[in-house]
């Protein structure tokens, strides 16, 4: 977050009365999540307290609780934010003016790269993932919808262009690719696929399998 | 474990001197794992202590430590035992005298059924899975090998019989199916696939995708 934005937010907040939510509140939320994300990555989710986050920003913990009810709420919002950055990246691939085959390959590769960037640190899983699994956080619904719709757009385009077969029901094909795509983006699975080179070999094999299944 | 075996084991052990390991020790190990498995399932891995396991068998904790160095060692052995029962089930399917297509379907279905039986309790993950992920237990190596070899046998048979295509390198095809098969057997992924009916629909779609990819 830029200096300017942080200053604006601070001056806006000095005037704010509880209950009033404006653009400044939105910016402050983003700042909290950005600082929390950095601290979670550096020290782990479990070892970071709300007090640590407040201290880093230069506000009180009580002030942070006006935005988030608990550390878990901050953790869930950090995860949702990371997933939405992944969503934007794959949406951009789906919109490209390229053959569907190429877009499907690139979309799966993007899922992999984003997952590695977001959730694995030095090939160890970010501990927020373990906590989210254990407590069954449900921040992935919107993300699942976007992944499904992205696959659906590319497969439908590939059917129109004659690149892909049309006999199997579209929703069955998209569901199967969606479930299979978990291999590229789920940190628990990724962390088991071996070193980066092995991971690449295995996932290229899966991509080729998916594309063979789509052959007309 | 039968009454008879438990008695035999106890009497054998009264004669045993440290360092001597015979069939009785093997049986005692199995008894410990069986009791531990039941307690982990009933109360959770985290809430079960070595003392609880010893008390249930009617021996001292010190005695248990002659067989396993730590609760974690018991946990890892319980997981390995569960995976080996899964391995036996899929091996049996691969050996059947049936078309490869049918065996591949049945093998994947068996993976699913065994995973549900072993790792999910009332659709919640057994907490031993969370602990094993967090601590990166490596009990799955033998299991991964068996799953790969089972897939390889079925795919090779299907190539011989003309059911499956032969252009793609065999190891590439088997690697891709192996990675995809994680969707059927990984408790973290399974717990996200929805209710049993949804799970069935989604995994049938994946099985059909794999079979389409194998079409000659």
From TrEMBL, chains A, B:
PANTHER family associated with the record: HTH-TYPE TRANSCRIPTIONAL REGULATOR BETI (PTHR30055:SF234), HTH-TYPE TRANSCRIPTIONAL REGULATOR RUTR (PTHR30055)
Region of interest (Disordered), ranges: 1-27
Signal peptide range in chain numbering: none
Keywords attached to this entry: DNA-binding, Transcription, Transcription regulation
PROSITE patterns: HTH_TETR_1 (PS01081), HTH_TETR_2 (PS50977)
Pfam family, one: TetR_C_27
Protein's name according to its UniProt entry: Transcriptional regulator
Span of domain HTH tetR-type: 26-86
Keyword Transcription: yes
Residue ranges flagged as DNA-binding region: 49-68
Organism: Alloalcanivorax profundimaris
Classification via InterPro entries: DNA-bd_HTH_TetR-type_CS (IPR023772), Homeodomain-like_sf (IPR009057), HTH-type_TetR-like_transc_reg (IPR050109), HTH_TetR (IPR001647), Tet_transcr_reg_TetR-rel_C_sf (IPR036271), TetR_C_27 (IPR041478)
